Amino acid sequence: MKSNRKAVSSKLMKTRILLQHSELSKYVPATYRLNRSRLLVLLKRHGMLYLKPDTGSLGIGVIRVEKRGKMFHYRHDVQSHTFPTFQAMFQSLQRHTGSRNYLIQKGIHLLKHQGRRFDFRVMVQKNPSGEWEPTGIAARVAHPHKIVTNGSQGGTIYAAADVMEPIAGTEKTDRLLHKMDLLARWTGAQFSQSYPAMNELGLDIAVDRRLRPWILEVNTRPDPCPFTKLENKESIRKIIAYAEGYGRKYKLDCSKAKRAPGSRESDS
């Protein structure tokens, strides 16, 4: 059933849209509603999980949960907690989750740049011809003491190739970035089937140690702030121009995200 909505807040609903696409579904980590028994089963199976509010943004409320040997751990914001039993950990977790709907997502072990985890924000928009076009990829390197990479949480923004090439080399990096472009195009087309009025999406994509990309989340009201921190301004100029074409103007108050060391303001 088609909808005129331009934004969807439920992460689970957006995940289900991705899973309807046979190819995209291969790049989506297992995601479920949080309950006690499911958390225990998945923790034993995967060893590391992320808990996320079903609605929310900016990385607020995200928790990493791990089972190491017989001990149970979780990290929330900058605080780490360790427990001898699952029950003790779950009771503590409930103080953070409260009555909100939370999701469990299979943990992806992110690559690291200078010891800090990173992922990617990929922007895809309808261009003036009405076709979905990837308009930017930026790497988001987490604050040293946080589990999320968001710029609003103190993350640092890098050009994607600057963090991938030291790990994968130029050729594999080029292939990986091309794959992200393809995933973004597929995602735009898939969302359009249910929400034809949508004009823009922001994909959060992680890359694991085998250099496989994973779509962690799709944002239907994406913040273009990461692209303002890149030295090359081509992406942010195109993002703004396409947005103006479909009637959106951004408030680019991007003071929390950090610019990569050595990069500078540039009009190039």
UniProtKB/TrEMBL annotation:
Protein name: YheC/YheD family protein
InterPro entries per UniProt: YheC/D (IPR026838)
Gene3D superfamilies for the chain: ATP-grasp fold, B domain (3.30.470.20)
